[in-house]
Amino acid sequence: MARRNLSRHRLRSALACLGICIGVLAIASLGIFGNVLALSADDAIGDIGNQIVITPNADEGVEELTARDVGAIERVAGDAGVAPLKTDGAQLSRGSESTFATVYGIDRPGEVYVAAEGRLPDRHRQGAILGADVAETLDADAGSVVTVEGVDLRVVAVLEPTEGFTPAAPDGAVLLPESAFSDAGYDQVIVEADSGAEATLIAEAVRETVNAREDRVDVFELTAVVEDVEDFFGLLSGFLLGLGAISLVVAGVSILNVMLMSTIERRTEIGVLRAVGVRKREVMATLLVEAGLLGVVGGLAGVVLTGLLVAGLTLFSPVEPGVVLDPTNALYLVGAFAFGVLISVVSGLYPAWKAASVPPVEALRE
Amino acid sequence: MASAELVGVTKRYDGGGEVVTALSDVDFAIEPGEFVAVMGPSGSGKSTMLNVLGLLDDPTEGARYLDGTDVTRLEDRGRTLARKEFVGFVFQEFHLIPTLTAVENVALPTMFDSGDDGRAAALLSRFGLGDRLTHRPSELSGGQKQRVAIARALVNEPTLVLADEPTGNLDTETGERILDELRAICAEDVAVVAVTHDPDLEAYADRVVRIEDGVLA
Ligand SMILES: Nc1ncnc2c1ncn2[C@@H]1O[C@H](COP(=O)(O)OP(=O)(O)O)[C@@H](O)[C@H]1O
Ligand SMILES: [Mg+2]
Predict the structure, then answer these.
(1) ipTM for this model
(2) Where would I find the beta strands (DSSP E) of A95-187?
(3) With an 8 Å Cβ cutoff, is B80 touching chain A?
(4) Which residue ranges make up each domain of chain A?
(5) Of A115, B31, B87, B117, which is least packed with CB atoms within 10 Å of its CB?
(6) Contact yes or no for B108 and A364 at CB 8 A
(7) Of A8, A278, A366, which has the smallest distance from its Cβ to B111's Cβ?
(8) If residue A329 lies in a helix (H) or strand (E), which one and from where to where?
(9) Which domains does chain B have, with CATH numbers?
């Protein structure tokens, strides 16, 4: 019955559907767009937010971090990986290839780095561990021999290339045992936590303990930056969703208009329904089904269009398919559809109630 | 016991300062199986009387009964249920739903219940419209439409059928056919009140009451 009533004014119903369709399209595609941006950024930022880098505070005359500092940091870091580093630069060569690389003196590389080839020793006692770029330049593998500042060293392992931005990036570096450095102190300490929140806590604890009496160290954490970036994307998504929601509300107004017109036209018919014993809420339900049907049809069209749009986006842009196929995007589709139907029914509520409330005598007297 | 009864019913309309008394102290009763014709000039209060009898409108004063039950003051919900249970309406303008087929129009009062078990189709067949079940009102003649309307009035097995100028939009011959049908309904102990200013109707009625300026003679 609802379908037949709607098909009485095909064009009008189609336009109302189109409104909902556009609204759902807007809210779903803008929502997915924002989500894809946020997910892509998340990918690029990687685990950066989980790391903190502690360096000596040169302003206070502290030139290096002592074993005591490292011990203090390890105590507050708990389960998180702690890697004290000595830093220098060195000329590396293998056969005819040679390159300049950062040299890190590190005792336990497994705390913060991952090997692509070979195995990272628990304690770094001998040989060299090459960063990915260095290994490639020298055409070296685990087992090769490289010359560092005139000393021949066997390559123990080659590190995974790092993605995105990481502090103390090891790609262009070579990791040597601490014993390769003459002075006892460290140039920086990297702490790798399991989460951004944990990193923040550790950073706070380091400031409170190591810097208790004097500001010995600078604590650099990216968590705050990452949070800012995430906040920004959250805001952007909210803004885009808001835009979509506005267009859906506008569509709701057009449903309201269509339902109002059609109930006014059908005033007598509705009066007849009431006269023959159809109850007020049954009349309302019938009319709400009509409004809901407009929403369902428009919403489905919107969902299909969004699907096509997103497919196009994936095909013709450098966005990673994994990010587009993320299940949270489906949530936006379902959410937009549900919201579209809800808006339609809510918009039908007033006209339906108004129409059902007309006393049948008045509706029938013409 | 009367199928329907009005006791001292007065109905006043308060239209823009000027009060119109459409019914004035009306006493009326109709027995099961009785066919009563209500006659009177235009504006005399005939439709008002039917609307009050059929619970479409409430009396300003007085009491009304359906099947012996006092239904003078009912909320909208109660009136709707009572209409559905006791009353069938036939209108001068037929008032069929244009988007529904004949059989769907007849089943309209039962649409939100469990269904009519083929009663709608059976009624249409009885009124000679067995081959018009799936026709839309626009595909039916005036007389056919009014027979569909009568079938609709009967689908809930009412005790009272109210017809407001049922022949008003029909030619004499077709009108007579409709009056025959209404007359036949009474054989099933249904009370029929038909309003008209058509003197022909007198021949079909068990009893004729006249109304003028809201006063029943
Ligand atoms: N809703 C209303 N408001 C004001 N006056 C009304 C209303 N309905 C009917 N009337 C008046 O009541 C009187 C009786 O009307 P009605 O019962 O329709 O007469 P009939 O059906 O005999 O032609 C008329 O004077 C009419 O103008
Ligand atoms: Mg009248």
Answers:
(1) 0.93
(2) 97-106, 115-118, 128-130, 145-148, 151-159, 173-176
(3) yes
(4) 2-44+227-365, 49-222
(5) B117
(6) no
(7) A278
(8) helix A327-357
(9) 33-47+76-216 (3.40.50.300)
